[in-house]
Amino acid sequence: MNAMREHWRDHPVFAGLSVKDLDFLSGLVTTEMFAARELVFHAGDAAEKFYLITEGAVAVEIFVPERGPVTIQTVNEGDVLGWSWLVDPYLWNFDAQATMPTATTAFDAAALRERFDEDKKLGYTMIKRFFPIVMQRMQATRLQVLDVYDVHH
Known about the structure:
By secondary structure, the chain is an alpha+beta fold. About 35% of the residues lie in helices and about 30% in strands. The protein is built from four helices and eight strands; from the N terminus they run H-H-E-E-E-E-E-E-E-E-H-H. The chain has helices spanning about 5, 20-25, 110-120, 120-150; strands at about 30-35, 40, 50-55, 55-65, 70-75, 80, 95-100, 100-110. It starts with a helix and ends in a 5-residue tail after the last helix. The mean pLDDT is about 85.
């Protein structure tokens, strides 16, 4: 097993999963690199992956008319990027752009969703682990929207 490729196993999202589940996930992993300012994904595109940032940083952005892209959150080394793959119709809700050269471990989310249909326990466990990521992103979005519209909170 390639140690560099398998570092993700120690991440809290995957901690405590069975050897069988970790071995399955190993088959879904690829390494993807992004140059500074390169788009990782675009709102409205199919959300077929999620990422663990292994080096670098990615800005999660929304487009605001007459203002342009607004950064909602910056995702750094060790953070998970992407949750739209969990919610039908499986389309990205935000843009994501590398802010510097960035390395990621990418997971085939479509294959993982299929596995969830077969293994409800794994699906439930992973959804519980991703839900805080969803909530954090929604909170960051709410704060940015208040700022964009100059609402004092």
